[in-house]
Amino acid sequence: MSVLSVEQVTKIYGSKVKIRAVDHLSLSVEKGEFIAVMGASGSGKSTLLNLISGILPLTSGEIRIDGKDISRLNEEEAARLRRDKLGFVFQDYNLVDTLTLGENIMLPLMFQKKDPDTMRREAHIYAKKLGIDTVFDSRTYEVSGGQAQRAAIARAIIHHPSLLLADEPTGNLDSASAQQVMRIFAALNTEEQVSSLVVTHDPRTASFCGRVVFIRDGKVFHELYREDNQLHFYDEILSVLKFLGGA
Ligand SMILES: Nc1ncnc2c1ncn2[C@@H]1O[C@H](COP(=O)(O)OP(=O)(O)OP(=O)(O)O)[C@@H](O)[C@H]1O
Fold first, then answer.
1. What PROSITE patterns does the record point to (predicted)?
2. ipTM of this model?
3. Which DSSP category does 163 fall into?
């Protein structure tokens, strides 16, 4: 069973003037896959993420997460699905500034009402894994962007979601921090089989993934699978982007 299955999904915005943001799009993510979604501004990437996370209703089609049809959920069920099955990483980290990094990492476990000792222990395990244990008790404004984003990743996966959704996770980072963050994504993918969908404009970020899905006008335009060499994959991604840009 696929972790995510998007079947012939269409999203039309507006009533008088209709905008077809996503158009009969199909995509599936298998357990342990690490996928980048690329496409020009306005091609429908954010709409697709919002449909998958159940924030936006579909116009037609079907989306299943772990086999469960999310288009049939009521608001409360959709919220529970987001909380239990999905993890989110955003461009601007979305950490809570009044909490320490460690407390931010623990947040999903607080919602699961775990006891404080277990929460702290598990948060430390992830902070160590992501190389931010030394700033566990720091505030969000006392750490670098790369450290903040690594805390956001720890928070996104600490409850073992089925699917990690990331929207421009390296968008605010310098290139060294961006590479470090993507190496962490890749390691989590290999070591813990975290299935991830990463929306990005950056070909270097995408080259860490195993597959890149290119979207144009709300449709899947092309897909690339990485063989072994990241540099070669990067070149292939650039060629498709050049073609997309010129088309
Ligand atoms: N709430 C909305 N109401 C009406 N139209 C919308 C809305 N949100 C997005 N759109 C339109 O839908 C299309 C797809 O937008 P979307 O934001 O999904 O693209 P994107 O690929 O994420 O772009 P970007 O890379 O700039 O974030 C665009 O034409 C956009 O103008």
1. ABC_TRANSPORTER_1 (PS00211), ABC_TRANSPORTER_2 (PS50893)
2. 0.97
3. E
